[in-house]
Amino acid sequence: MKKITFFSRCELVHLYGRITPHLENKFEINHLAFSKIEKKILEKEYNITNVICLQDELEKKYYNSGVNSQIIQEIDTLIINKSYGQFCLNGAIQSDRTFEFNTYEDNLHLCQSYYLFWNDYLKKYKPNYLIHEPVALFMTQIASYLISEIGGVYLTNIQVIGENDFNWIFVKGISGELYITENHKKDSITKETANNFIQNYRKQKSSILFSQYSKSHNQNRKNNFIKYLRLVGSIINLLISHIIKKKEFISYNPLNHIETFLIRYKPNTIEQIRMRIDRFFFLRYDEFEREKQFYYYPIHMEPEATVLYWANGFYKNQVKLIENIAAQLPPNVLLYVKDHPHGIGDRNYLDYKRIKSISNVKLLNPIIPGVDIVKASMGIITINGTGGFEGYLLGKNIITFGSNFYTNMYGINSLNHIKDLRFIVYKLNELNDNLSDINYLESIQLYLAQSNKGFTDYFSDYVLKTKVNENENAKIVAEGFISQLK
After folding, report:
1. Do the domains at 3-187+450-485 and 188-208+286-449 have one common CATH topology?
2. CB–CB of 466/15 below 8 Å?
3. pLDDT digits over 460-479, tens only?
4. Nearest CA-CA partner of 478 in 8, 23, 12, 4
5. Which end of the chain is more exposed for a tag (fewer CB within 10 A), N or C?
6. Could you tell me the residue ranges of all domains in the chain?
7. Are 406 and 388 in contact (CB under 8 A)?
8. Pairing state of beta strands 397-400 and 129-131?
């Protein structure tokens, strides 16, 4: 019987707690909780006993001894070898945004503690699969390397475009690459099914007329008045929130690095107000001129795994990346850039000012559906976002700088360095537009074979917004686990 360890942090505790009863006869399951909060939820709400709490283990056993230079060297060597030279220990520390408020010595101490914990835990329980969110912190990066030492794999389930309302796939948590199982081979999906999937996707995503965009860009006085009211309302809400909710204080303790980061990294109230005013009065979006020749770069949410570990820590500064991309494009080819819908307002106005100062870059309004931009584009240039896969299904040229679930599909141009971009964009012709191409169809077949029904994005109340029946959904998701991992 194969072994699964579920590592619960934040909302994921509810997904793992709900699906456990449907998996217990198929797998040997162990639960690891990040903190006492998740441990209590698993015990009280889901009747799961013998839960190990990572924070308790660190405090009791692994953070008491001082930093050992020999162990630190072991960690550095492991990271270099397992990342194929993309990371070393210092690179891993820089990519963990929650280490920001610690001293370097404390971060080394934490890295050593996580390393020792995971080394002992994985050797004791020997899971075939460690299931958690994408690698986005050092504590999970080191776990993904260590589980591979015992022949296991760190997996993440992510929502994707599929044949149903909600679909998810397993990816390797350290890289985001599609996890291909022997249970789900591409031959289980016919070429006709793959072809229909592509055709249906292209039909369903109809373009919105340019005139509708014009209405939103050229608003009349009445609409501007409503915008002013909303701005004033948002500022009042910020001030009230500042008065009612005093900023939580956490005394300095390196073990609280995640909680400390979540509280301190956001701008203070005055800065948030200034950012909103700057955006309202000074930021002007460019028109979406679909007849122009352009590549499209969708800005990623940050700081997240996609721009950190899944991009080898090289492209954390997306403004600089946009500058570099624009500099590699042929004459009369523009770069259209659009903010992530969930990231609106999180970026400093000066970032947008720098983007707009690049002569062949156009900053588009976030309200424009990305798929409409993709359809009119020459191709997508992305670190590893889902916009790249949308473009792939629409037959566009795709260029990526990071790894993702479509990295290894036929026709994807995966670059190791920004300097390689110029050669690619000068040479590219239309790819993936001929559905008779056997390699393209086989890539879609393999992708669909790994796709499962159900909703697994238990982050930021997404599950509440979808209004899925969580109990029924748990059964459906569990079926995917069984069919792929058993």
Report:
1. yes
2. no
3. 777 887 888 999 999 999 99
4. 23
5. N
6. 3-187+450-485, 188-208+286-449, 219-282
7. yes
8. unpaired
The pTM for the full model equals 0.86
How many of the other CB atoms lie within 10 Å of CB of 12? 21
Domain 3-187+450-485 has CATH 3.40.50: yes
For the segment(s) 188-208+286-449, the CATH number from 3.90.78.10, 3.40.50.2000, 3.20.20.220, 3.40.1190.10 is 3.40.50.2000
Q: CA distances (Å), 233 to each of 180, 220, 236, 246, 273, in order?
A: 49, 20, 5, 20, 11
Question: In angstroms, rounded to a whole number, what is the distance separating the alpha carbons of residues 333 and 327?
Answer: 10
Residues in the chain: 486
Contact partners, residue 69, CB within 8 Å, separation at least 6: none
Residue 207: predicted pLDDT: 46
Cα distance between residue 365 and residue 286, in whole Å: 7
Sheet hosting strand 129-131, strand order edge to edge = 52-53, 28-33, 3-8, 129-131, 153-160, 167-172, 452-453
Half-sphere exposure of 446 (CA within 13 A, CB side): 18
Report long-range pairs for 185-189 (Cβ below 8 Å, ≥24 apart). Answer: 185/446, 185/449, 186/442, 186/445, 186/446, 186/449, 187/445, 187/449, 188/449, 189/445, 189/446, 189/448, 189/449
Order the strands of the 379-382 sheet from edge to edge: 361-364, 334-338, 294-298, 379-382, 397-400, 412-414
82/88 Cα distance (integer angstroms): 10
Report the distance separating Cα 142 and Cα 480, nearest Å: 27
Reported for 408-415, long-range contacts at CB under 8 A and 24+ positions apart, including other chains, are: 408/177, 408/178, 409/443, 409/447, 410/437, 410/439, 410/440, 410/442, 410/443, 411/439, 411/440, 411/443, 412/388
Whether 431 has a pLDDT exceeding 90, the answer reads no
Q: How confident is the model at residue 256 (pLDDT cuts 50, 70, 90)?
A: confident
CA distance to 25, 34, 39, per residue, from 21 (Å): 8, 21, 17
Angstrom distance (rounded) from CA 138 to CA 40: 24
Which of 318, 343, 332 minimizes the C-alpha distance to 401? 318
How far does CA 471 lie from the centroid of its chain?
26
C-alpha 14/C-alpha 166 separation (Å) is: 18
CA distance 357 to 347: 16
- Secondary structure of residue 347 in the 3-state scheme: coil
